[in-house]
Amino acid sequence: MQDNNTVTTPPEGGNNIPGNGDANTSAQEGQKTFTQEQLNAIVGERLAKEKTKSDAALAAREKELADKEFRFEAKEMLIGRGLPADLLDALNTSSREAFEKSLSIITPLLTRSTGMTFSTSGQHGNLDGNHRKADPVRGAFGLKEKGK
Asked: Pairing state of beta strands 6-9 and 32-35?
């Protein structure tokens, strides 16, 4: 069973006011008539476009939130290993794998340059429990290390 309802739209600049006599007959020549199925298709297409736009915006917001959460977790990971949190900006945080690779590259370099060892378990320090290597100047003068 088909729905034979039709909707007419006035031509550009015209009006569809009943009772205008000549204006009504000339307007019918330029009017376009849509069936209910055609209107449903047009409205359906527009709704689908809007849904696609809103889905894309939602996906973008979810990705942004996930990125922020990962950066927070990465900063906590750096702090837990005894590394400065500012180092986060110098590391690749595009994905967890990329971050861990960057961290595995930079950790030995920092260990060599500072003399500190950095743990992968979140604990940090040298083998003797200190976070710094012995001060050579204090050692040259036979002074005790601070805190000992």
From this structure: antiparallel
Read off the tokens for 32.
């376009």
Asked if residues 134 and 145 have their Cβ atoms less than 8 Å apart, the reply is yes
Mean pLDDT of 119-129: 45
8-state DSSP, 88:
G
Strand partners, 8: 33
Per-domain boundaries in the chain:
38-140
Q: Tell me, yes or no, if the pTM score tops 0.90.
A: no
Residue 103: CB atoms within 10 Å: 20
Whether residue 99 contacts residue 92, with contact meaning beta carbons closer than 8 Å, is answered with yes
- Residue 125: CB partners within 8 Å, gap ≥ 6? 82, 116, 117, 119, 131
Residue with tokens 């069936």: 35
- pLDDT tens by residue, 28-53: 567 888 899 999 999 999 999 999 99
> Which position has the higher pLDDT, 93 or 136?
93
Could you tell me which of 128, 127, 126, 145 has the C-alpha nearest to residue 136? Answer: 145
Return all residues near 138 (Cβ < 8 A) that are at least 6 apart.
144, 145, 146
SS3 state of residue 53:
helix
